[in-house]
């Protein structure tokens, strides 16, 4: 096992109480020594923005300078015209392992992550069986040490079987290396159980990540409740199904001084609640997905099952509120909620198809195309939000600062490509942006000091 | 006109006019002793019904037979669907028989559009979940125009469970496309948020019902009568039942059937001469003949239909 990315560090008080750092596991390659020549090195958090040579030696960022010589045996990457940015961290990935390895496994999922420029990911525990006991977690960590291309952390369930009734052995799970706790896919329905989880968090010392939804309001809904659901005759999921639960859990976190992270926010009202909670000192962070930031209920019009996920794509006003939240920092980070599904399951009528879309391989390109190029978001802000996903769980944001472990993503901001044209690294193809033309392509990813991905056509020359 | 009929949205006002005229000419055929025309001889129509249906399936069967098509009816019960076959596989299997048209009824929104994607046949949506039921809307237009003479400017109130009604959704689109002014009315729990975007007003009481030319009552589904959508059947009937007191002497009454007597309608209005309910059922066959004709023969044979068409020039339907 290689050490998790170090350095960077988020604002004080965003980590769990005991300051535990989530352990990440991966197979890793040999520590890289390479010279990225002539790249535009850009790390807004570290104040780095210059066209220079970036030297990675033995897996660490060694030097940023001009006309650097390549050490003996170093690989030289001609990176003129490319951006070298800190690689991304995704706090919300479904690796479908154990149980649905036909949809994704640790190898394919982390390959997809590396192809998307991610150097670390956190996997969700809603597998078969659920990650609700230490032995399941330990076996997953073992497999990650054998298979994972990028450092991977595993969240464990808050309640046994995600049934929302009985707390998991959170303290033991934390000792066994749980990166955090979540019942993702399902809400913690009972306020009483949620409160107990927040109390018990003082022992487990890990952030609770929350899928916020009131099942009695969502009912049998399959899309956002609004104009489009009225037109299509589909049962809707009202925005209040999310925002009411966000409000409840912010109140409980305030009362218990707990640390919560709201997953995949989708509704304007939820952003408003979180903004108010942050203002009064509640320890809450939140994430938004590329699909919620870029698509709205309009994408459901043709009943494309790759526009079906939970929470659903909402109205344009919600999307605008998410973008504003991302800009202002109310939305702390981007998360893909990468959710692979088998083709035969998505090839069904909309109501029968499962919820979820893949997104690891397209996250940066989609957000660059949809937000940065039209001038809605600064590139620097996008990079900050895409690298901050681990901070709520004690995984520091990657940086290009000298001496740090090399977590670098080399991107071509001018490259156009069609999503899915060359297939996917993921085992599943249910991508929300399938078939779209995007601008911005990851050419190479260095994760925890080793080369985790290089685009097949991207020529590299050794000295 | 599109080669499928998936939604009323697929039809322009001209398309609708043409279908209604064509239905009028088929009505003439239906009045003869031999009710058959040879238009679709040698062609196959498949009725694929995933939901129980009496009116729609039987009228599609009659329509196909009167056009001399070969007809295959597949019901979900007792077929390979019961054995867990996916919609895609069922449709591809049936398509191997080279049908000219597939008529599909499904509890799933968008099922007809998927069939259109997976099969080379012309696809007719006979009801997809709560979304649409376009041939019902067309027969409603046909029956109403025969009675009222013209559709333009009619004020239509659709009353009842709009939330769960594909008849209401297609009706709103069709009536407003033909120049009617549509109001939907029902308890707030049964009116979907955002329904105004289809082109209608929303009311929650019958206070202004007097301004309507046509009252279109929807069926109240048994399982939704009690409990969370409405507190009780009694309260629903007290507020929304169309009875002799509420239905004005110059108002017409429509209902897609089957009627719950004493719930959405009282017996006296069902049997009154203002009711078009039986005419709606009668219109089902000729309108579905017209739809099959337009999709399968209309483009090839031209409006005059030649020797294989119905009978000479299409005649404008006359008010009864």
Q: How would you describe the shape of chain A?
A: globular
CATH architecture of the largest domain in chain B: 3-Layer(aba) Sandwich
- Counted up, domains of chain B total 2
What Rg of chain A is obtained from the alpha carbons, in whole angstroms?
21 Å
| N-to-C span of chain B | 29 Å
Query: How would you characterize the largest beta sheet of chain A?
Result: 9 strands, mixed
Spans of chain A of at least 5 consecutive residues whose pLDDT stays below 50 are 1-19
Order of helices and strands of chain B: HEHEHEHEHEHEEEHEHH
- Spans of chain B of at least 5 consecutive residues whose pLDDT stays below 50 are 300-320
Summed up, the helix count of chain B is 9
Provide a short characterization of the protein structure.
The complex is a heterodimer of chains A (about 475) and B (about 325). Chain A is an alpha/beta fold and about 475 residues long.
Question: How does this model look, in words?
Answer:
The complex is a heterodimer of chains A (463) and B (320). By secondary structure, chain A is α/β, with parallel strands linked by helices. Chain A is 27% helix and 21% strand. In chain A, the strands form four sheets. In chain A, strands 1, 2, 3, 4, 5, 16, 17, 18 and 19 form a nine-stranded mixed beta sheet that branches. The radius of gyration of chain A is 21 Å and the shape is globular. The relative contact order of chain A is 0.19. Chain B folds into two domains: 8-133 and 284-301, Aspartate/ornithine carbamoyltransferase (Rossmann fold, 3-Layer(aba) Sandwich), CATH 3.40.50.1370; 135-278, Aspartate/ornithine carbamoyltransferase (Rossmann fold). Chain B contains nine helices and nine strands. A five-stranded parallel beta sheet of chain B has the order 7-6-5-8-9, covered by helices on one side. In chain B, helix 1 (13-30) crosses helix 9 (277-301), helix 5 (134-148) crosses helix 6 (166-177) and helix 5 packs across helix 9. The chains are: A alpha/beta (463), B alpha/beta (320). Chains A and B meet through helix 6 of A and helix 4 of B.
């Amino acid at each position: 096992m290689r050490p998790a990315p170090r350095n960077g560090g988020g604002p004080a008080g965003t980590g769990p109480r005991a300051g535990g750092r989530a352990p990440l596991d991966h197979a890793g390659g040999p520590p890289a020594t390479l010279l990225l020549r002539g790249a535009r090195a850009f790390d807004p958090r570290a104040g780095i923005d210059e066209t220079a040579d970036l030297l990675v030696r033995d897996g660490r960022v060694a030097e940023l300078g001009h006309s650097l010589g390549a050490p003996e045996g170093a690989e030289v990457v001609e990176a003129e015209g490319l951006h070298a940015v800190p690689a991304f961290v995704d706090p919300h990935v479904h690796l479908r392992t154990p149980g649905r390895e036909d949809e994704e496994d640790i190898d394919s999922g982390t390959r997809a992550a590396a192809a998307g420029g991610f150097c670390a990911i956190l996997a969700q525990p809603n597998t078969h069986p659920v990650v609700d006991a230490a032995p399941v977690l330990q076996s997953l960590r073992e497999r990650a040490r054998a298979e994972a291309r990028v450092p991977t952390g595993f969240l464990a369930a808050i309640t046994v079987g995600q049934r929302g009734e009985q707390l998991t052995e959170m303290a033991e799970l934390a000792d066994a290396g749980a990166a955090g706790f979540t019942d993702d896919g399902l809400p913690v329905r009972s306020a009483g159980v949620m409160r107990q989880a927040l109390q018990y968090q003082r022992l487990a010392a890990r952030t609770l990540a929350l899928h916020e939804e009131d099942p009695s309001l969502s009912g049998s809904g399959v899309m956002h409740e609004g104009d489009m659901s009225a037109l299509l005759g589909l049962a809707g999921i009202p925005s209040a199904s999310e925002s009411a639960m966000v409000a409840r859990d912010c109140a409980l976190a305030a009362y218990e001084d707990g640390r919560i992270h709201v997953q995949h926010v989708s509704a304007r009202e939820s952003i408003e609640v979180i903004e108010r909670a942050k203002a009064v000192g509640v320890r809450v962070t939140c994430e938004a997905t590329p699909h919620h930031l870029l698509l709205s209920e309009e994408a459901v019009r043709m009943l494309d099952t790759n526009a079906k996920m939970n929470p659903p794509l909402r109205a344009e006003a919600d999307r605008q509120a998410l973008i504003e939240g991302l800009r202002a920092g109310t939305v702390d980070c981007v998360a893909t909620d990468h959710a692979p599904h088998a083709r035969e399951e998505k090839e069904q009528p909309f109501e029968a198809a499962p919820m979820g879309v893949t997104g690891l391989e397209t996250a940066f390109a989609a957000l660059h195309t949809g937000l940065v190029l039209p001038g809605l978001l600064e590139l620097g802000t996008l990079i900050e939000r895409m690298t901050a996903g681990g901070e709520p769980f004690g995984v520091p944001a990657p940086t290009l600062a000298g001496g740090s472990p090399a977590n670098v993503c080399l991107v071509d901001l001018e490259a156009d490509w069609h999503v899915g044209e060359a297939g996917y690294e993921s085992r599943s193809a249910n991508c929300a942006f399938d078939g779209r033309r995007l601008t911005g392509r990851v050419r190479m990813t260095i994760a925890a000091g080793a080369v985790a991905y290089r685009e097949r056509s991207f020529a590299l020359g050794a000295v | 006109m599109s080669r499928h009929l998936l939604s009323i949205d697929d039809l322009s006002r001209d398309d609708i006019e043409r279908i209604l005229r064509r239905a009028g000419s088929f009505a003439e055929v239906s009045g003869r002793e031999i009710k058959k025309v040879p238009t679709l001889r040698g062609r196959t129509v498949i009725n694929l019904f995933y939901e129980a249906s009496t009116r729609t399936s039987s009228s599609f069967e009659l329509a196909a037979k009167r056009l001399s098509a070969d007809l295959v009816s597949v019901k979900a019960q007792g077929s390979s669907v019961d054995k867990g076959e996916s919609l895609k596989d069922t449709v591809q299997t049936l398509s191997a028989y080279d049908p000219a048209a597939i008529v599909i009824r499904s509890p799933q929104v968008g099922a007809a559009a998927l069939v259109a994607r997976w099969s080379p046949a012309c696809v007719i949506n006979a009801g997809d979940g709560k979304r649409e039921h376009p041939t019902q809307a067309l027969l409603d237009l046909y029956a109403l125009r025969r009675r009222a003479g013209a559709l333009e400017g009619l004020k239509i109130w659709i009353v009842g469970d709009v939330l769960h009604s594909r008849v209401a959704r297609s009706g709103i689109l069709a009536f407003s496309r033909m120049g009617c002014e549509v109001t939907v009315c029902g308890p707030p729990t049964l009116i979907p948020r955002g329904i105004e975007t289809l082109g209608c007003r929303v009311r929650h009481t019958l206070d202004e019902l007097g301004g309507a030319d046509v009252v279109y009552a929807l069926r109240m589904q048994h399982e939704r009568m009690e409990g969370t959508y409405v507190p009780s059947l009694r309260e629903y009937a007290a507020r929304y039942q169309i009875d002799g007191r509420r239905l004005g002497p110059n108002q017409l009454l429509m209902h897609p059937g089957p009627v719950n007597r004493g719930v959405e309608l009282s017996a006296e209005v069902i049997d009154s001469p203002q009711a078009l309910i039986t005419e709606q059922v009668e219109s089902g066959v000729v309108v579905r003949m017209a739809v099959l004709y337009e999709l399968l023969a209309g483009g090839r044979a031209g409006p005059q239909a030649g020797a294989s068409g119905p009978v000479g020039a299409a005649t404008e339907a006359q008010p009864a």
